[in-house]
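Handout, section 4.2: multi-component inputs.
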Amino acid sequence: MKEFLKKFKKKNEVSEETDTLEQTKNAAPEPQEVVKTGEAPIVHESIELRLDNLTKEFVQKSKAITVAVKNFSVTIPAGKLIGLLGPSGCGKSTTLYMVAGLHKPTGGNIYFGEEDVTNLPPEKRGIGLVFQNYALYPHMSVKQNIMFPLENMKVPKEEALKRAQFMAELVHIGDLMDRKPNQLSGGQQQRVAIARALVKMPRVLLLDEPLSNLDARLRLQTREEIKRIQRETGITTIFVTHDQEEAMSISDEIVVMNNGLKQQMDHPQTVYDEPINEFVAKFLGNPPINIIDGKIENKKLLVNSNHIEDVDFSDQDVHIGLRPEFFVIDPEGVIEAEIEIVEHIGRDTMLICKLEELNETFRAIIPASRGLNIGQKIRFSYSKLFVFNKETGERLI
Amino acid sequence: MLEFKKDGWKAAIALGPTLLLLSVFTFYPIINAVLMAFKQDYVFLSGTYNGIGFGNFVTILSDPKFLDALKNTSIMVFISVPLTIILSLLLAVALNSVKKLRGFFQTVFFLPYVTNTIALGLVFNVVFHKDYGLFNSVFGLELVDWLGSGTTYWRAMFVLMVYTIWNGLAFKIIVLLSGLQSIDKQYYQAASVDGANRKRVFGKITVPLLSPMILYVTITSFIGAFKVYTSVIALFGKGAGQTGAYGPDNMLITVVGYIYEKLWASGTPFGVAAAGSIILFIIILLITLVQFWISKKRVHY
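Output:
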C-alpha cells in the first residue's frame, strides 16, 4: 500500500508538467488523461473552483417560485477541502448538485479553473460525486462499480482494472472487490462510493453528507479517512454537511449557508471565534451559544437594567451572545445567577444557571470544580461576548 | 406454530371457499386430464376405457396435423414473444421519459387490453381487407389477400403476429413502466456523473435493474403465447369465404386449437385431447424451467 502511494505521488509530481502542456493544447482539457505505462493513475493539477452569483429557483406546481440558492459566490482555492455547512433545506445540496451539473442554475456561473462549466452536462465536467446514500449500482460487484466510470471513458480494460484496484487499496477495500454492495457494511459502501468517484481522477470531488448513514465511531474514522484521501490526491473538494463538528474537523475552510444565502466563509476556528451574525454564532458550537435579550441605551449595554459594559453604538434592542466557555467564575462579576444543574463531564463542569430576575437559563462550562451546589448563588464575569442587533442579527461586537 | 394450530378453524374458514372452488375447477380437472391421457378409448359419458398406456400419445404424435399445430405455435411463440418484449421495453422507456401527455399515451397503449378480442379481430379484418383494407392502401400493395382464401401461410402468420404483438403490448408496457418508475432516480444521476451515455445507461443500469420485471413478463408471455387460440379465431374464424376456423385449410391451427378440435371430433377418444394438453403442459413447464435457470445468472433482485 505504501509503495503504491509513493509511486502514486511520484507520478503525480511528474505529471504536473505534462498535464499543463496538455491543458494548453486543448481549450477544454479532458479530465480523464491516463498514463499509458503507469501502475497508478494520475491526478490532474488541482484547480480552483469558483461559483459566481449562483442562483437556483424551483418553480412549483402552484407556479410559486422557491429560491433555493441566492446569489451564491464562493472561490474555493485549488486543492482545498471546503465544508458547506447549514441547516436542512438551506440550499447546500442544491449548490452541490449545481456544481455537479445535475441541477441547472437559474443564474450565475460556475468556473473550474478558467473554464466556464455552467452549461456542461455532468459527464463533461470531470467531477466525482458521492451521494448521501452512495447510489452504488446494486447489480454490480464492487469492482464493476469502481470500473464503471472508466469503462464509460473507454479506458482499456487492463488499465481500468489496475486503476480500480489502486483506488480500492487507497480506500482500504482491496479485498472486497468481488462482493455486491448489499454484502458490505455502511462504511465499506461509503468507501466504494469514494473510490468510484475518485477513480476517474475528477477535477472536483463533491461529497453530499457522506457520513450521515454511518454510526458514530465509523463516522469519526471515515472523516479522517476522507481527509487523508483528499490530501493524498489533492483534489479540490466540497463536503456538504449539516453537522458542524464534522465540518469544522475536516475542512480547510467552511462556508456557512442559511436560506440559500452565504453567511460566512473562513477557517473553521475563525468562523467559530468571530461569527459574522447571530445565525452563524448559534449554528456553530456545541453546547450552543447562550443568547440573552438586552438593549443599548445611552451607550450602555444593559441586561434587564443591569449595566454590563459601555459600548459605542446607538440605542437599539440587542441579543447578547455568550458561548458557554466565555463564562468565568468571579465574585466581582456582573452576571448573577442561581445554579440549577451541575454536570461533571470529566475535564470540565457544565453549569445550567438561571439568570436573576430574567427567568432565563444559560449554560456555562468551567474547568472541573467541586463544591458547586444546586440552588447556590454565583457570580460570573466573561472573557468575551458577542452583541447582535435583535432585528437583523448583524453582529455589533 | 402453536398459534396456527389454535386458530386452525379460522384458517379453514378463510381458505375453505377458495380451496373448494380450486378443487372443483382446477385440481380435479388437472388430475382427471392426466388420468384421461393414459386411458385408452376412454368414453366420457359412460366412463369406460380399454386399458392404460401411451396409446393416446402415440396417436397424437403421429398425427401430422398435431405436428403442424406444434410448428405453428412454436413459430408464433419464438418470434412474437421476443419482439413484443423488446418493443414493450422500448415503449415503456420512451413513455417513462415523456412528461407531458404520458397519461394519454398510457391510455392509448392500454386500450387494446380492455377491448374485446373479437372486436379487435373485426378491426384487423377491415384493416387487412383485400379490396378496401387500410394496410394495402397505405403501403401501396395491390389487392394482396391477407386473411381471405387467397392468402399464403406467411402472410396469414404475419397478420397473426402483428395482432398478437400489438394486443400483448399493453399489459407488458404497464408492468415494465411501473418497474421503471420504481428504479431510484439517484442511479441515473450517478450514471450521468460517471459519464455513461444513453446506450450504456440503458444497457448497464435500466435493463439490469428492471430484470425481475422483464423475467416476469417473459415467463407470462411465453405461457400465454403457447396457449394462443382466440386470436386465430378472431382473425380467421367465420370470415368471408373462409374454409376453416384457423385460416384457409386450417393452416394456422395451434396446439390449443387442435386440442379443442379433437375434443369434439367424432370417433376420436377424449384421451387424445387430454394427451395433447399434457404435452403442451410439459413444453411450457420445460421452457419456464429454462427461463428460471437462465435468470439465476442474469436477473438481479
